[in-house]
Predict the 3D structure of the following.
Amino acid sequence: MMKKILSVAFVFMCAIFVFVSCASRPTGKVSPVFGLRWEQDGKAIGRCHLMDNVSISGKVRGADFSDGSEIFLEVYYVNPNDKSVLHEITNLLTTIQNGAFKCDLELSSKDLENYSSGEYFVPEVSFKIKNAAGDVSVRTPVLKAYCWIKTQFRDRKTGKAIANHSYIIYKSDGSEIRGTTDENGYVNEQWLPFGSYYLDFIDE
């Protein structure tokens, strides 16, 4: 009985060893482009506001990506409600230095004016990479781009900021956002989906 138990335990341990050995083997082709990320002020980000200045950075390896060679990026918006439609924003060209590259970009809401179908959505920004040899097959990170509303209310006669005053932001889908101005009279609504908004200052 003891021999049977030891035999079963040995087979079980061998099975674990085989599984770990197989799992640790690299699979597929190593990508020449890696470490891709969106940045803002030197920090990795996954979201930003429209009109923000952001950067795309990454590292490269291989003979096709030597220092001094150029790398080409096609940046586009993706509507998460219909990922089959890509809306190109811009093309960026940069030079590889020390095995890495970085491109700066300002995300403009104007690029979305003819792209929105009327519903509210958070645009996703992604990109494709090319070099002299053609397209590079690599998974690229997505950046979510939000809208924002910031404006200041002032008294028309005195010009003084109107603090702690109620307002309503109406959305075309019938919903509302309610709030009050801050101590300096500002409305400051962040991380809004792209769409139409109407701001109304409530008489009190």
